[in-house]
Amino acid sequence: MADLGELIKQARELFDRRSYSAAEGVYKQVLTLEPGNLEALTNVGRIHRYRKEYDEALGFFQKTLEYDPRNTNALYEIGYISVERRDYDGALKHLYKTVEIDPHYIKAYSEAAVALRGKRDFDQALSILKTGLNANPADSKLYYELGFTHFDKKDFDSAIANYLKAIELKPDYVNAYKEASLAYERKGDFRSAISYMEGAYKRVPDQANRRTYYDLKRKARPTDGVIDSMTYVKQGRVYHDEKKYDEAIAAYSKAIELEKDNVEAYLARSSTYDAKKDYIRGVEDCAKAIEFDPYCEEAHYVAQELYRKLKEGQKAYEHIKAALKLLPRDDRVIADWGRLLRDDCSYEKARDMFNKAAEINPKNYLHILGRGRTYELMKKYAESERDYEAAIKLNPNSKVAQENLARVKGLLGQGGVSSGAQDKKIDGYQ
After folding, report:
1. Distance (Å) of CA 310 to CA 216, 277, 281, 305, 338
2. Does 223-328 carry CATH code 2.170.270.10?
3. What is the pLDDT of residues 318-336, one digit of tens each?
4. Where are the domains positioned within the chain?
5. I want to staple 95 with a disulfide (CB 3.0 to 4.6 A). Which of 67, 79, 134, 155 is the partner?
6. Using CA atoms, how far apart are residues 161 and 156, in angstroms rounded to an integer?
7. pLDDT in tens, 356-401
């Protein structure tokens, strides 16, 4: 019989690594041995909640309360789900009880404020947050929620004061930078708005933050020509989607003529050069984007793809490393790192990268497909077959996955003997 302590330890490690499906399986073994194990009941409930399977989640949380009516984790989780379902009164009942039992349960104060804002009871939301701060005076999240509530009341000065306090307590609080930027923008103070949005962008240089940052900079510029540059970018994207690549490039070039540091235009033109298989010019545009914006993770990501197509592996490695440094949990970048490792025949390391990408974004079939291709090259055809089937389940229209599955099934039918011809076919998007 499995050792209960070892099972709990294994499940906890899987849960902490966000391997939720595997953790669920082990926790259910724990519950077979000990039906009242509170950790297992609560964490299986959380796994269902993460999947938005709220009825199943509630069943586990309510079971937890049968064993322990004062279990704050279960009370909070029921409150959270009630907020998601807009049952604000039901949420408050459970959340108030949570903080009554444990005044230091920070998330319960924040979620109660969300419920009260949903009821448009802003004054009571401010009150519960201040109660939380009395018990937890150095908590950045509570100051952030105070800022959010003041913002909803259109009291932008008070909102900014609380966002800045949150940043003082937690200097890398990206959402506080973004919300402070928005509050300053509402006040018409674009200089401060740009400064705080830049703070958010430097800390998380993703596409959404980049576009918000540059949009703010454009709003602050007085010349109509700069504003018009984005009109040409949008026009270029329409041409690109219509496969009118020369017209797209002309539109992007006009945008750059109007605004020489328009990073979006360089990235878009690079994508069109890629479609024309003019990889060298595509790389040049990525370099210009990076020159004007060293935090542009997307430029490094696109550059590594182009260098792979140019068969310049070392330069591709340099850019993928730079992209990962900027956004270490970008599943696309992690998966492409796996492809580079696979191209270098480092199959086990490549598999680990695809595993990590799939853990972060389990709905992206390309990560599963990439891992399946890696298993195939490792001649682990059963694992490869499993992944190709999983990829097809996520995207039934993937011809690559269908072709790969048929090929592997053929190999399994031959007893797993490869002619070698299949191993030479490596698609950059597998």
Report:
1. 36, 10, 11, 9, 18
2. no
3. 999 999 999 888 999 999 9
4. 154-220, 223-328, 355-430
5. 79
6. 9
7. 999 999 889 999 999 999 999 999 999 999 999 999 999 999 999 9
